[in-house]
Design goal:
339 residues, ABC transporter involved in vitamin B12 uptake, BtuC, two-stranded antiparallel ribbon, 2% strand
Length: 339
């Protein structure tokens, strides 16, 4: 091997390591770059992609899943996973609808009861993980089925129609209402999603609680040795995730206009997809809370752009699958710098 070849090889390795170091310091840059490239590509390839109507529609379509992704990201940051978030959301929405529409309970109380149910399910998940020391995957896989069963029991497998909600509990549809901002149509559900991420950003980056969440995700045993009450923090994470699922439930009613036990059946996987594509590490302890928001928008951009190009739904799923694989591969590559 000549000296020139060796020099070129060393230069490439140095460049790759520099990029690796940069992305390790700023992991959110990966999804940001993907989002910018995706938007630019579809702006050139898909007709009307950059119209205010289409961009508004993308945000509206990701509002519920994006809110769920915020809950999912909290758990994943602690090196766990919550497979029950969509079931919790639907359970909370069924409780809100049944109380307000079918039982005549004042709507604010019904909404509060639904959100309280979210808190309760989070407490159940957190208690099973912290007290019984069950793996989060197994725990939430079990509670996923339990909560789905409760959804079917409480709803009787019946849908509460949009007309019935309009007649007796229009407040349930609050987050489906919209306003115009220039040429854009923004729903209150989008504002709720952004508000949830803003609050979590402050909590995770500017409070002692946030530092403890990251420390536990990085190394729970080391965090315990440093004096962090790991179980208490983990329980608070699951309870907070349940609270966010309750808010997502209220938002979902406004989004679809009804309460159905079979709505958002894929939201659980979609929330995990948004977190992974956004760049939060599945191994915990690394990633910005802005990541799942960006990840959800990336998925929305891909689905919208491919649809406008006339691409079959089959290939939209194909593209999303590759996005997940590439995102995890990049995360593994970046993590090598810390090992």
């Amino acid at each position: 091997m000549t000296e020139a070849t060796v020099a070129r090889f060393e230069h490439r390795r140095t460049t790759a390591e520099s990029i690796q170091h940069f992305l390790h310091r700023f992991p959110t840059m990966v999804p940001v770059i993907v989002l910018i490239v995706s938007v630019a590509g579809f702006a050139l390839a898909a007709p009307n992609f950059m119209s205010a109507f289409n961009l508004s529609l993308i945000l509206q379509q990701v509002a519920v899943v994006g809110t769920l992704a915020a809950a999912q990201s909290l758990v994943i940051l602690t090196a766990g996973i919550d497979l029950s978030v969509s079931a919790v959301m639907v359970l909370c929405s069924v409780i809100m609808g049944k109380l307000a529409v079918e039982m005549g309970v004042p709507v604010p109380i019904a909404i509060a009861a639904g959100i309280a149910a979210g808190l309760g399910t989070g407490w159940v998940n957190g208690t099973l993980v912290t007290r019984l020391r069950l793996p989060p995957f197994i725990t939430t896989l079990g509670t996923l089925n339990i909560f789905i069963a409760l959804v079917y029991y409480l709803s009787g497998r019946n849908t509460i129609r949009s007309q019935d909600i309009d007649a007796s509990a229009p407040l349930l549809k609050l987050f489906g209402q919209n306003f115009r901002l220039g040429g854009f149509v923004i729903t209150y559900g989008v504002l709720l999603m952004l508000a949830v991420f803003a609050v979590l950003y402050v909590a995770l980056n500017m409070t002692a609680w946030g530092k403890r969440v990251y420390a536990i995700g990085d190394d729970a045993e080391a965090a315990a040795l440093a004096g962090i009450r790991v179980n208490r923090v983990l329980l608070s994470v699951y309870v907070t995730a349940g609270l966010i699922c309750g808010l997502a439930a209220w938002s979902s009613i406004g989004r679809v206009g009804s309460v159905s036990p079979t709505s958002f059946v894929e939201a659980n996987l979609e929330s995990i997809t948004a977190v992974v594509i956004g760049g939060i590490s599945l191994f915990g302890g690394r990633g910005s809370i802005a990541a799942p928001l960006i990840g959800a928008i990336i998925v929305g951009v891909f689905n919208s752009g491919l649809r406008l190009m006339g691409v079959d739904v089959l290939w939209q799923l194909f593209a999303t699958g590759w996005l997940i694989i590439i995102a995890v591969a990049v995360d593994q590559w970046i993590r090598k710098i810390a090992s």
